Amino acid sequence: MLTYKAIYRFNDGGVHGEVLDFPGTITCAADLAEARRLLASALVDMAETSLALGEPLPRPDPSASDSSADIEEPIHLLLTAASHVVTIAQPA
Questions:
Q1: Domains and CATH numbers, the chain
Q2: pTM of the prediction?
């Protein structure tokens, strides 16, 4: 499990969420609960895309902070590994 830093800013249109130490992981939502859910999903999507492209995941930075954030909190990334085996019949 990797623990990153999530931040949330409240604005007129809702809530902006961002993972500070995982660039590109952002979302907007109508309320905080939805922003948290969408940001968690975005973090998984970004991690899966990075790994599929053979790129390393950013290292979490516990000191990451944003003074303009209304809320800062940890967000956890839990990845699982699996293998997929396909058996192809050989012609007789």
A1: 2-77 (3.30.160.250)
A2: 0.83
